[in-house]
Structure formats: C-alpha cells, structure tokens
Amino acid sequence: MKKLEVVIERGRFRALRGRDVEAVIRENLPLVEETLRAEREEFLLERVGKLEEKLEKMESELEELREFYEKALKDRELMRGERERLREENEELRKKVEERKRELERKLSGA
Question: Looking at the record, which segments are called Disordered (predicted)?
C-alpha cells in the first residue's frame, strides 16, 4: 500500500484533534472527487480551446499554402506556354538565319 501524506494548516489540525480522521476523510471524499473532476474538466476545456486555436491557425496556413500552390500551378502553365512560344519563335528565327546565310553564300559564290 502506498503512503499518503496530507499536509494541513495548524489551526485545522487542532480542530481535528479527537475526531475520527477517517470519518472526516470519508465525509469529504465526494466533495474532493467533485472538485478534482471540475478541475480536470476545466483543464480539458482549456486544452480543447488551445487545440482549436491551433487547428484554426493550421487551417489558415493550409489555405495560404493551397492558394500559393494554385498560383504556382498557373504560373507554371504560363511559363510552359511562354517557353513553347519562345521555342517556336527561336525555330522561325533559326530558319530565317539559315535562309539568309544561304542567300549570302549564293551571292558570294555567284559574284
């Protein structure tokens, strides 16, 4: 059996002298249990409140990330389109340069 040590103030100790301490404990036990339950409930309600705040913050951050991701996807699509446009433009310019080069070679070889 575990040892239980109860500390009480001197005035209360004197008031308990001569009384059956076990009976006093039994009488007060329901009140103590109710107090402990109330304290536990209060602790749990505070904890729930903190967790709800944390959840709201995480949901807010998640929404920001979702918006950032959607924007990044749109930007990626825009960049792909731009890259394709530049690739086509580059191909056209290459063809024009090759054509110009051939024209210059013909003029030089025909001159």
Answer: 84-111
